[in-house]
């Protein structure tokens, strides 16, 4: 290495210091107008990138909200389907307990069966499933499914005379209408 140049490419003064100004290559002079034009172009690019970012973020938030809504709806549908599948089991327990022969009414295992029915009903109550009132009520096609009509009865309005299968609601939504016999009163 010579005394006049340094590793960094700068020239060395006689006192041994590096002169960086001499090492710089002369650049073309850029006018203020050109710099303002470049700045305006970069600001446009920056604004476009920011707009794209805002749109992408909004799209993500919308997707997140839509996914959460769909997940919640799917969970509700699955819950409803499960509860509807449990209802025939509750019906069977009720029928079994209503039709116990007299000679079996004192059996100990019968209290266990009764406890199972009570637990199923408590589970339905806990899940906000309620029985639709039917017998003696005005017939309402939103809640009752008439499968038989008493033609001999007379009157102004249809009344539920008998319930063949209980109906149930999940909150305010009918998940199984009551199957009933209707007559006039």
User: What overall geometry do the principal axes of the alpha carbons give?
Assistant: elongated
Largest sheet: 3 strands, antiparallel
Please bin the fraction of helical residues. Answer: 40-55%
Order of strands, main sheet, comes to 3-6-7
**How would you name the oligomeric state of the polypeptide chains in this document?**
single chain
The low-pLDDT segments are 1-5
Cα gyration radius (Å): 42 Å
- What would CATH call the class of the largest domain? Alpha Beta
CATH topology of the largest domain: Hemagglutinin Ectodomain, Chain B
Spell out the helices and strands N to C: EEHHHEEEEEE
What CATH architecture label of the largest domain applies?
A: Alpha-Beta Complex
Please describe what this structure looks like.
The chain has 185 residues and is of the alpha+beta class. It folds into two domains: 32-127, Alpha-Beta Complex (Hemagglutinin Ectodomain, Chain B), CATH 3.90.20; 131-185, Roll (Nucleotide Exchange Factor Grpe, Chain A, domain 2). Helix content is 49%, strand content 21%. A hairpin with a 2-residue loop joins β6 (167-170) and β7 (173-176). α2 packs antiparallel against α3. The protein is elongated and about 115 Å long.
